[in-house]
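Thread amino acids onto this structure.
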């Protein structure tokens, strides 16, 4: 399994992460006798994109004989570094996205950057809306989101968050969300006060 994972990642795009840093634990693995689908659960210490997860599934399917498909479930522990891309594929840029707020309510995250929304002043948390506005669109599956998706809504579990200071009063926040099968990193330029809101209202495990 370690070899499959190593071959599924382009380490040239992740210079701070080396193959020997990978840690993988097979939590369970079983083949459904009727469907011939291999159900495998892995615990990783690194984040994989939807493209990387698909590459891993494909390599497992080619390696294990007499199976029709692979149902891959990923969980994370002691995560190191950022999202690791698959080989020979364009690294996905974070899409502007709306996500679920703490407590199951609606909360938005804007990807920011050129072409994004206008820079605004700090807005305090209002009810269960931590950032952005109430969500009115239907959810999109995480594995269907890519750099061309634009603004989307999705559901998942927050398993890590981090921030990098970019000016005296602003940070670049990174929120890592998973649905146990794939993951996505949502980035937002926020005021320091808003990052404090994230720390208070978005603990790891929020859905």
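Threaded sequence (207 positions):
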């Amino acid at each position: 399994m370690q070899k499959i994972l190593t071959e599924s990642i382009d380490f040239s795009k992740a210079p701070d992460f080396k193959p020997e840093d990978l840690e993988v634990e097979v939590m369970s693995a079983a083949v459904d006798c009727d469907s011939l689908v291999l159900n495998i659960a892995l615990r990783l210490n690194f984040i994989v994109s939807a493209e990387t997860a698909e590459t891993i599934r494909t390599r497992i399917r080619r390696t294990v004989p007499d199976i029709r498909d692979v149902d891959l479930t990923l969980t994370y522990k002691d995560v190191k570094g950022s999202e690791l891309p698959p080989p020979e594929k364009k690294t996905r840029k974070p899409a502007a996205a709306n996500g679920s707020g703490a407590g199951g309510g609606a909360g938005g995250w804007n990807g920011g950057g050129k072409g994004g929304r206008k820079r605004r002043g700090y807005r305090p948390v209002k009810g269960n809306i931590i950032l952005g506005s109430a969500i009115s669109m239907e959810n999109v599956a995480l594995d269907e989101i890519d750099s061309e998706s634009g603004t989307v809504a999705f559901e998942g579990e927050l398993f890590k968050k981090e921030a990098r200071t970019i000016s005296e009063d602003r940070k670049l926040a990174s929120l890592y969300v998973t649905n146990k099968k794939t993951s996505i990193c949502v980035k937002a330029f926020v005021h320091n006060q808003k990052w404090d809101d994230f720390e208070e209202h978005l603990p790891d495990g929020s859905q």
